[in-house]
TrEMBL record:
<dbReference type="InterPro" id="IPR023298">
    <property type="entry name" value="ATPase_P-typ_TM_dom_sf"/>
</dbReference>
<keyword id="KW-0472">Membrane</keyword>
<dbReference type="Pfam" id="PF16209">
    <property type="entry name" value="PhoLip_ATPase_N"/>
</dbReference>
<comment type="similarity">
    <text>Belongs to the cation transport ATPase (P-type) (TC 3.A.3) family. Type IV subfamily.</text>
</comment>
<dbReference type="GO" id="GO:0045332">
    <property type="term" value="P:phospholipid translocation"/>
</dbReference>
<feature type="binding site">
    <location>
        <position position="556"/>
    </location>
    <ligand>
        <name>Mg(2+)</name>
    </ligand>
</feature>
<dbReference type="GO" id="GO:0005524">
    <property type="term" value="F:ATP binding"/>
</dbReference>
<dbReference type="InterPro" id="IPR032631">
    <property type="entry name" value="P-type_ATPase_N"/>
</dbReference>
<feature type="binding site">
    <location>
        <position position="555"/>
    </location>
    <ligand>
        <name>ATP</name>
    </ligand>
</feature>
<dbReference type="GO" id="GO:0140326">
    <property type="term" value="F:ATPase-coupled intramembrane lipid transporter activity"/>
</dbReference>
<keyword id="KW-0812">Transmembrane</keyword>
<dbReference type="InterPro" id="IPR006539">
    <property type="entry name" value="P-type_ATPase_IV"/>
</dbReference>
<feature type="binding site">
    <location>
        <position position="828"/>
    </location>
    <ligand>
        <name>ATP</name>
    </ligand>
</feature>
<feature type="region of interest" description="Disordered">
    <location>
        <begin position="1"/>
        <end position="95"/>
    </location>
</feature>
<feature type="binding site">
    <location>
        <position position="827"/>
    </location>
    <ligand>
        <name>ATP</name>
    </ligand>
</feature>
<dbReference type="InterPro" id="IPR018303">
    <property type="entry name" value="ATPase_P-typ_P_site"/>
</dbReference>
<dbReference type="GO" id="GO:0005886">
    <property type="term" value="C:plasma membrane"/>
</dbReference>
Length: 838
């Protein structure tokens, strides 16, 4: 039978895909084809599995079908939809199953299945348009024809639906944004957010409501407002009308002045930021013209000079450095002062002139704005090619260009859609612990005041109603008792209102303002080396400094100097060090096993003749190849090389392995060259599975000079050890030395590798390529792909890196502990390392 099934996509594109269905019996094969559709009202077909040999085929199953297994094929694309004979299921008859291959959609090209779940939710990657994750539901009815001939169960009108579902958060997924390069009018139609920012707490329209809400969230002010209002009523107040409302107005006025002064500083800072200038491409003149940051738009191409900050989130195209490299400082984003490397794609590295930039035509399909500083997913399409974009091409607003003369980049996120501003919260209304305590005490005092007022009102009413003096001498009229009682309560509240002193709030505000000024001028908190004074950004919170119970501190770069030095290594169960203490010198224990540490000079000897020689050579080669370090040659003295690394650990390992006879000196886009004992060897870099906080490891897939493909991997012991092959004779001894290094306060990494057959790599490379070109959820897909090849590893050993404490850290921690403050160290290192640091 012939079925025509409309494919309804999230973009409302519709195409009829032709499928051929027939039973495997001879009688059914002889039937004349007829056209049918699937019905939307009846039974549901869901995705239940994938063909293990063809992982891009989708298995659909109709669990309630009672027919035979069928062979389905697409007559449009001529791609066979593989037969899977039905299998008996208790109470459910026979399954109707098919593998769908190369689903087609008009104007969108080939879509490959990426993943599935038991509910039929699929992630489909599209190479020529925006990929998305869709729910595929196939409906099919029971054939109600009374004919005796066997019939297909799919014989009524219906549809195959693809419904957009969220990848993150369980919400409806928004389509990715499309940015047109050098097409400002098309970008203007998208109505992207402007680049003007505001970090101020108030503006002209919001000052009054926000300020009064904040002030009257304090119970004292609320109480005095209530007292001041009833004091204005002549019949109730035994005191001056303005005895409370005037002092309260003075308090509110002073508080308003303080808020205005502090918020004007924020407005001034915003104005200065928005008025900075950047060079933006002017298409008519094909040159770069200065434009204020606030006028920068999504899709603009900008030129950033060395030392300038990035005005928005940008995609790097090219730079003054070879291979589109640039170096950035992100201290405004994450507090880290070490330089980080960003690199444009090889396809755009030769766009080096304004004319070349102006001639670039293409689109960027980007993820939606989010607050993740370390992730980015997108694609760049131009010149008939589509290339993936990742965080290594992303230049974040707030970062600064360093050690690079200039870069060309395209704006993708502006203003409050930039990742920096997405992480910045609006200035909140904060209350201190003292204020919360005062609010509680004021409620308690108000209850006492109310009780006193009730007692006095009852006493006064009783005397007024029964006392002869009041009735006959004073001649007081007998008005309604309930009305008189209510008036008396309010009158006594006015009389007793000094129980809650108005000066309390005034005094607290004055003290806070004064303390803020003292902090700003305190010489003990002034750092002369960097010319940086202490700054009290919010004077209303200064008393919180005296309420601190815990200090949580990062270790690397905060407690330590962030200057890494390669100190020790264990290879093949033998430990080596650049310096061996007397108590660690090699010796033979009772069992006849040699223990202790060896000098690095012994390692060089063992590399030539010892049984562990092959492991040592593989270990040192791995350290020289498995990294993302960029060597920079000095212009005046080319023999001098400076290593630029995104992580100081990597730079330390590359420098340290020089002691072991491996010298890394050249990096090209697809290869690295190392000098091994005086001989240059070039290793082809096939793929790099980068480090992240979830994986806790990085790996390189390389092809050595002999043509052998290897996986080189380094990472935390917790993730490397669990991925080892069954037979690893040096595992126990390596773990022993890892614990020993950690107790010395050293940072440790495990080193492992394995040889990869050519056919296995070719299959894996296709999976990795598909993962790298997805837009949504790309990092998860890349991590899944890496898992497939990072297995059955051979453990080579481990490294130990020293990161010394900064000057004054021990004294500072001791002082904090004397003050009763508990100090917690936050680190990704082993627990023994953190304990040693503390």
């Amino acid at each position: 039978m012939l079925a025509r099934i409309p494919l309804i996509s999230g973009s409302n594109d519709c195409e009829k895909a032709s499928l051929r269905s027939g039973n495997t019996t001879q009688s059914q094969q002889q039937q004349q084809p007829n056209t049918y559709r699937l019905s939307e009202e009846d039974e549901e077909y869901t995705a239940v599995g994938l063909n293990e040999n063809e992982d891009h085929h989708l298995l659909l199953s109709n669990n309630s079908s009672r027919g035979e297994g069928r062979t389905l094929e697409s007559s449009d694309s001529q791609d066979t939809l593989v037969q899977n004979p039905g299998k008996s299921r208790a109470g459910k008859g026979t399954s109707d199953t098919a593998y769908f291959y190369n689903l087609k959609s008009r104007g969108k090209g080939v879509e490959d299945l990426r993943s599935y779940d038991e509910e039929g939710e699929l992630e489909i990657s599209d190479y020529t348009a925006a990929p998305s994750r869709r729910k595929v539901t196939l409906y099919g009815p029971t054939d109600e024809d009374d004919s005796d001939e066997p019939k297909s169960r799919m014989s009524h009108p219906g549809t195959l639906k693809r419904v957009m579902t969220a990848i993150r958060g369980g919400q409806e997924e928004k389509p990715e944004r499309t940015i047109y390069i050098n097409a400002p009018h098309r970008n203007a139609e998208q109505k992207y957010l402007h680049n003007r920012i505001s970090t101020a707490k108030y503006n002209v329209a919001t000052f009054a409501p926000k300020f009064f809400y904040e002030q009257f969230s304090r119970y004292a002010n609320l109480f005095f407002l209530f007292t001041g209002v009833i004091q204005l009523i002549d019949d109730l107040s035994p005191t001056s009308k303005y005895g409370t409302i005037f002092p309260l107005s003075v308090v509110l006025f002073l508080s308003a002045v303080k808020e205005i002064v502090e918020d004007r500083k924020r407005h001034a800072q915003d104005a200065e930021t928005n008025s900075r200038e950047v060079k933006v491409l002017d298409l008519p003149s094909r040159s770069f013209q200065l434009k204020k940051w606030r006028d920068v738009c999504v899709g603009d191409t900008v030129r950033i000079e060395g030392g300038e900050a990035f005005p928005a989130d940008l995609i790097l195209l090219s730079s003054s450095e070879p291979d589109a490299l640039c170096y950035i400082e992100t201290s405004n984003l994450d507090g880290e002062t070490n330089l980080k490397i960003r690199q444009g794609r090889q396809e755009t590295k030769d766009i080096l002139t304004p004319e070349a930039v102006a001639g670039l035509e293409g689109t960027i399909k980007s993820e939606q704005p989010n607050n993740s500083l370390y992730t980015y997913e997108g694609t760049l399409s131009f010149g008939g090619q589509t290339i993936p974009l990742d965080p290594s091409q992303l230049l974040l607003r707030g970062a600064m260009l360093k050690n690079t003369r200039w870069v060309y980049a395209v704006v993708v996120f502006t203003g409050h859609e930039s990742k920096l501003m997405r992480n910045a919260t609006a200035a909140p209304i904060k209350t201190t612990k003292v204020e919360r305590m005062v609010n509680t005490q004021i409620i308690f005092l108000f209850c006492i005041l109310l009780c006193l007022s009730l007692i006095c009102s009852i006493g006064y009413l009783t005397r007024q109603r029964t006392g002869m003096f009041e009735l006959y001498i004073l001649g007081q009229a007998r008005e309604n008792a309930l009305t008189q009682f209510g008036k008396n309560i309010l009158t006594y509240i006015i009389l007793f209102n000094n129980l809650i002193p108005l000066s309390l709030i005034v005094t607290m505000e004055a003290v806070k303002f004064s303390l803020g000024g003292l902090i700003n001028t305190d010489l003990d908190m002034y750092d002369e080396a960097s010319d940086t004074p202490a700054v009290a950004r919010t004077s209303s919170l200064v008393e919180e400094l005296g309420q601190v119970d815990y200090v949580f501190s990062d270790k690397t770069g905060t407690l330590t100097q962030n200057i890494m030095e390669f100190r020790m290594a264990v290879i093949g169960g033998l430990a080596y060090s650049d310096h061996v203490p007397e108590d660690k010198k090699p010796r033979v224990d009772e069992s006849g096993v040699e223990v202790g540490w060896h000098e690095f000079s012994r390692l060089m000897e063992n590399k030539k003749s010892h049984a562990t020689g092959p492991l040592i050579r593989e270990f040192t080669t791995l350290l020289g190849v498995c990294h993302t370090v960029i060597p920079e040659r000095d212009e005046e003295n080319p023999e001098v090389i400076t290593y630029q690394a995104s992580s100081p650990d990597e730079a330390a390992l590359v420098k340290g392995v020089q002691q072991l006879g491996v010298y890394f000196h050249t990096r090209r886009p697809k290869s690295v060259t190392i000098n091994v004992d005086g001989v240059d060897k070039e290793y082809q870099i096939l793929n790099v599975c980068e480090f992240n906080s979830t994986r806790k490891r990085m790996s390189c897939i390389v092809r050595d000079p002999e043509g052998q493909i290897k996986v080189y991997i380094k990472g935390a012991d917790t993730v490397i050890l669990e991925r080892l092959a069954m037979h690893n004779p040096h595992k126990d001894s390596t773990v022993y030395y890892l614990e020993e290094y950690a107790t010395e306060g050293l940072r440790t990494l495990c080193i492992a590798y394995r040889d990869v057959p050519e056919d296995e790599y070719q299959k894996w490379a296709k999976i990795y390529e598909r993962a790298s070109t997805t837009i949504n959820n790309r990092q998860d897909e890349l991590d899944k792909a890496a898992e497939l090849i990072e297995k059955d590893l051979t453990l080579l050993g481990a490294t130990a890196i020293e990161d010394k404490l900064q000057d004054g850290v021990p004294d500072t921690i001791a002082t904090l502990m004397q003050a009763g403050i508990k100090v917690w160290v936050l680190t990704g290192d082993r627990q023994e390392t953190a304990i040693n640091i503390g």
